[in-house]
Design a protein that fits this description.
This protein has 124 residues and is mainly beta. It is built from no helices and 10 strands.
């Protein structure tokens, strides 16, 4: 499966963006999908994940209550709705796919396919 992340951009603090992770090559319905982000000088960190059957893992504390992950298997796409954006949400956001049984969706090592990343910049 190949992943294409999109939807990033420049937004003011308090605004919203919706990121999309579109899959090609294979159906995404058999994969768990996660969103991670990486700010300059920092390690890549978990944001949110959704299981193959639509269950969501607990969100990162920093985004809980503001971000929502969802999937549309008919469109082979996973979304990350980001509301009430903060300056500290600025990062490159990556989506990734994990095969069933790959392990916890919290960890980057569970994922074998990554999208190219989309930049999210939150301004004051």
């Amino acid at each position: 499966v190949q992943l294409q992340a999109s939807g990033g951009g420049l937004v003011q603090a308090g605004g919203s963006l919706r990121l999309s992770c579109a899959a090609s090559g294979r159906t995404l319905s058999n994969y768990g999908v996660g969103w991670f982000r990486q700010a300059p000088g920092k390690e890549r960190e978990f944001v949110a994940a959704i299981t193959w059957n639509g269950g969501s893992a607990p969100y990162a504390n920093s985004v809980k209550g503001r971000f929502t992950i969802s999937r549309d298997n008919a469109k082979n796409t996973v979304y990350l709705q980001m509301n009430s954006l903060k300056l500290e949400d600025t990062a490159v956001y990556y989506c990734a796919a994990a095969r069933l049984g790959s392990g916890s969706l919290y960890y980057t090592r569970s994922y074998d396919t990554w999208g190219q990343g989309t930049q999210v910049t939150v301004s004051s």
